[in-house]
Structures are given as C-alpha cells and as structure tokens.
Amino acid sequence: MMQLMQPDAPRWFAEDRPIRRVHADASMFIGGMRALLVQSLHPLAMAGVAQHSDYRRDPWGRLQRTADFLAATSFGPADEAQRAVDLVNRVHERVHGVASDGRSYSARDPHLLRWVHIVEIDSFLVAHQRFGDFPLDADGADGYVKDAALIARKLGVPAPPETVRALRDQISSYRGEVRGTKESRDAMRYLLFEPPLPPVARAAYSLLVAATISTLPRWSRPHLNLPYLPLTERFALMPLGDALTRWCAGRCRSASSRQVGWLTFACGAHEGVVDALLRNIIGTGVFRVPLHADDAVFIMLNRL
C-alpha cells in the first residue's frame, strides 16, 4: 500500500489546499464517470483506450489504480507522488498506434494530454460543486484548477489552465475535434448500462449513472445518444445523486477512523476504495479489488 501515513514527510499540497477537499469527497466517483464519458468523445484519445486498455475485463481494478494515483499525488509524500507520475510517464511512452480513421496517436501527444487533463479536472470540479459535502467558493475553485496544474505539468501537459475560466475556455477550444464514434458509444453503454455487476446491484448503480448523466455538458449529449431532460435532472436525478453520495460518504466515515479521504482508507485499511465504495452503495461484498501501488495508470480516459 502506498505510504500515505507519514505525517512529517513533505507533500506537494498542504492540508488546506482545495485539491485535498475535492479529491477526498465521495462525489469523485461521479466526476470520474463523467470524465470517462466526455474524454471518450475525442476520437484519438478513445482509440488509445480501445486498443491498449482492458477496461472491459477489469473495470473496477482500473478505477482502483486510478484512485491510487490520485491518492499518491494529492495526499501522499512528495517522493511517492513523484514515483506515481514517473510510472505513468513511462507507460505513456509505449502507448501509440493508428486510429480507425487512419490518424496516428500517442499518449505522449501534448494536445491529447491536455484534453484528458482539462476534462478530468472539469468533471471532478462539476461533480464536487453539485454533489460534494463542502462546495468551493470562486477562489477555491480557481485554487483547485491551479493545484491540478502542478500535477499536469509533471505529466507533460503544456500550459495547463490555472483558473476556472481558462479551464472552460480550453475545453471550448476542443469542441471542433470531438464527435461520437462506435468506440465511444460502446464504452458509454458498457459503463452506464452493461457494467459487470450482478442483477441485485444494478438498481443502486443506476442511481450513480443517473447522477453522472445529469452532470454532462449539453453539447456532449448528442454525441453519446443521451437525452437532455432539464426538469427531470434538476428535480429528480440531482437530489438522488446528492443523497447517494452523502450516504456513502457517511458510511465510509463511520467505518474507519483512519480515513484520508475516499481515495485511500475509505472503509478500512485492508480494503480497496472502489470495493469499499461499491460495497457501501450496492450492499454486496462481491467486489474484491486489491490495491496496486506500483501498477501503472493509463491516463487516457482511465485517470477517473
């Protein structure tokens, strides 16, 4: 397990930094699902995932490894955070290929790295502001974007945004490049409607799905063949998502006195966070996902 419990070790972020508040909140699960869906709309990013990812075989394991990365960089000692970044950068050197439309792609392409980063940070922030326990004020939201930029630069992202306005401007600049593809819609159906869950678990999981859909930007819906239902989302889906994330966070807080946010010791020192989150939401113990502190995280669509 990552050595996060070293209280005197230097860290990249102080305890009062916005990135710690956002990344310690149960709304990260919704933000991660949103990020995956929006990131998939860039054909080259999605090609990398389709050709190099095993998300269909081991989706929860990938979520767990992503949680490990975010825990190391947001909460962990500086040397642990740097090791996590170095590992990701090494993995990216091996990820390249040709998309179905004939264009080449590489996980080290600065343009694609920026797309993945800005969508991820926007998604975490949107989910936190809508479903988090303690939403950020305007200065705090800008601070979160600035905190995330430090990690992004170490991953090779050029000129990452440092304010919410710059973040949204950069996302808008990619709008002409995004479109729905067979690969993105297949990933969407698998994540939202065909997850590898037992039937008894799907009703509760569908609440997370509904909350995630309610956070998607309107421009993304047609690309994913998802409707926009403002009244339903405002008066039904958002309240359900809020109740679900708060209930899950409460369960996790009461289960462990060693909690360092939902990313690390969410419900016990020997249990993976994705297992813990799904177990608390769905009420079953069928998900056993070990922590892999030394495993690689493939940034393109998998840094949820």
List keywords for this structure.
2 strands, two-stranded antiparallel ribbon, 2% strand, mainly alpha
Topology:
Layout: H1 18-23, H2 28-39, H3 43-52, H4 59-75, H5 78-93, E1 96-98, E2 104-106, H6 110-131, H7 138-154, H8 164-173, H9 182-192, H10 199-215, H11 221-224, H12 230-255, H13 273-282, H14 299-302
Antiparallel strand pairs: 1-2
Helix pairs in contact: 2-6, 2-10, 4-5, 6-7, 6-8, 10-12, 12-13
Notes on the structure:
This protein is mostly helical and 304 residues long. The chain is built from 14 helices and 2 strands, in the order H-H-H-H-H-E-E-H-H-H-H-H-H-H-H-H. Strands 1-2 form a two-stranded antiparallel ribbon. It is globular. The model is unreliable at 251-304 (pLDDT under 50).
Concise overview:
The chain has 304 residues and is mainly α. The chain has 14 helices and two strands; from the N terminus they run αααααββααααααααα.
What is the rounded Rg?
18 Å
What is the count of DSSP helices, taking H or I runs of 4+ residues?
14
In this structure, how is the largest beta sheet organized? 2 strands, antiparallel
**Strand count:** 2
The oligomerization state is single chain
Quote the beta fraction: under 5%
H/E series: HHHHHEEHHHHHHHHH
Determine the mean pLDDT. 77
Distance between the amino and carboxyl termini: 19 Å
Helix content: 55-70%
